[in-house]
């Protein structure tokens, strides 16, 4: 027969009490933290799934921070585009008023001075930065000041030192900068299909409107020169195809009688001739002219207003009409960019809602794996506490038992 020593029984009872006390402490820790899984050994499967949910949650929160930064930059860019649009409209108002034939040279000089100030403000807007110091219109980057003002005594123009291009919006991200080159440095000249300019040596009042394409299928892509010649029978004009080798007159437009405000049409081009030309005056028609920039358009208007000479009236009329058309084209590009930014800001609102939903879903998923059911946890703790107290009382009663108590 096996005998169990009193010491062994004592040790086993104490170990049992310590285990119950340890489990109670763990349960109390779970209650205080609200977590069922405090370490991986508590529930390896739940801990792994909770870690996966936490990683997804971290990515969503990172996307949320990036979206907030992009939204702030886009809001500031939209504000800059709105200000640029207002400046361009102010330029247009001044150009329209400058066409007043009763203005004096001093009044035109004052308008030219105002245009210079507006051009400088437009450059400042194009070089604007966000709260973090990043350029808003530098494209893909490359320069802390993308638009360099070269309108000085030694040079003229604005140079784009940024990097052309636009970061495409992704599924979870939006651009933080816009391509300023595409907004302000790609303004079509003339009417977009061709541009009309006055001959450098003109002495008379010959000019023309911007013209239009009357038949796109008839366009040849050639450049033309319209020459005016005084003959015994009156003033005539001829249209010369200067791209042809050798240059040749256009059929039906060689030595034709000229009358002011007449409209001519040839090879898909329609043009209204204006003014009273002198012999030797010319008009140059350039097909598919390269893009200009909004700053150069303003500068050309400034130079037109300061022009002097026998044909200054024709230069102003033609130059202001062309500048207004190109200003309108530049304004359209600013409005297009502003509309695109508006679409991205609307998309940011949608992404914000999506990220909020994902954040909530991943938090719930993580909670389902590791959080403690408080009602169940409190109930389990109370059960363990009751069992522990009962065990202590039982042990106290058994500890007082002895052989002498039985003999007595």
Could you give a short account of the major beta sheet? 6 strands, antiparallel
CATH class membership of the largest domain: Mainly Alpha
Shape: rod-shaped
- What's the architecture of the largest domain, going by CATH? Up-down Bundle
Stretches where pLDDT falls below 50 for ≥5 residues? none
**What is the fourth-level CATH superfamily of the largest domain?**
f41 fragment of flagellin, N-terminal domain
Structural class: alpha+beta
Distance between the termini: 27 Å
| Approximate strand percentage | 5-15%
CATH fold-level topology of the largest domain = f41 fragment of flagellin, N-terminal domain
The total of helices stands at 8
Radius of gyration: 42 Å
What is the helical fraction, as a range of percent?
A: 40-55%
Task: Give your account of this protein's structure.
The structure is a single chain. With 408 residues, the protein is α+β, with helices and mostly antiparallel strands. It has two domains: 34-188 and 291-372, f41 fragment of flagellin, N-terminal domain; 194-289, no CATH class. Helices cover 52% and strands 12% of the residues. The protein is built from eight helices and twelve strands. It has helices at 6-33, 44-98, 105-126, 180-184, 294-305, 312-370, 374-399, 403-407; strands at 147-149, 158-160, 194-198, 207-208, 212-213, 224-231, 234-241, 248-249, 256-257, 263-266, 269-274, 282-287. The strands form three sheets. Strands 3, 6, 7, 8, 9 and 12 form a six-stranded antiparallel sheet that branches. A hairpin with a 2-residue loop joins β6 and β7. The chain is rod-shaped and about 145 Å long.
């Amino acid at each position: 027969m096996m005998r169990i020593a009193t010491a062994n029984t004592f040790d086993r009872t104490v170990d049992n009490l310590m285990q119950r006390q340890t489990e109670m402490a763990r349960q109390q820790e779970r209650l205080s933290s609200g977590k069922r899984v405090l370490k991986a050994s508590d529930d390896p499967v739940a801990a792994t799934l909770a870690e996966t949910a936490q990683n997804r949650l971290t990515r969503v929160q990172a996307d949320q921070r990036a979206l907030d930064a992009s939204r702030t930059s886009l809001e500031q860019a939209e504000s800059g585009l709105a200000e640029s649009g207002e400046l361009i409209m102010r330029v247009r108002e001044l150009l329209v008023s400058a066409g007043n034939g009763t203005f004096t040279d001093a009044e035109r000089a004052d308008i030219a001075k105002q245009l210079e100030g507006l051009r400088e403000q437009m450059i400042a807007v194009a070089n604007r930065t966000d709260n973090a110091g990043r350029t808003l219109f530098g494209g893909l980057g490359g320069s802390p000041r993308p638009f360099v003002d070269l309108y000085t005594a030694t040079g003229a123009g604005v140079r784009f030192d940024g990097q052309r291009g636009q970061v495409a919006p992704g599924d979870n991200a939006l651009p933080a900068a816009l391509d300023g080159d595409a907004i302000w440095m790609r303004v079509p000249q003339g009417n977009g299909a061709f541009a009309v300019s006055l001959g450098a040596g003109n002495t008379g009042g010959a000019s023309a409107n911007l013209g239009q394409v009357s038949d796109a299928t008839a366009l040849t892509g050639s450049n033309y020169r319209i020459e005016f010649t005084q003959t015994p029978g009156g003033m005539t004009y001829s249209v010369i195809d200067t791209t042809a080798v050798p240059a040749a007159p256009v059929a039906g437009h060689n030595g034709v009688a000229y009358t002011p405000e007449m409209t001519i049409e040839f090879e898909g081009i329609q043009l209204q001739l204006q003014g009273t030309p002198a012999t030797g005056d010319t008009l140059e028609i350039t097909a598919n002219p390269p893009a200009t920039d909004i700053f150069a358009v303003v500068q050309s208007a400034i130079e037109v207003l300061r022009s002097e000479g026998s044909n200054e009236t024709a230069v102003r009329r033609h130059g202001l009409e062309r500048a207004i058309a190109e200003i309108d084209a530049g304004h359209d590009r600013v409005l297009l960019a502003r509309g695109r930014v508006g679409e991205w800001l609307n998309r940011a609102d949608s992404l914000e809602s999506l990220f909020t939903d994902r954040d909530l879903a991943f938090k719930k998923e993580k909670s389902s794996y590791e959080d403690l059911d408080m009602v169940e946890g409190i109930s389990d703790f109370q059960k363990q506490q009751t069992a522990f107290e009962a065990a202590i009382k039982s042990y106290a009663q058994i500890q007082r038992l002895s052989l002498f108590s039985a003999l007595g």
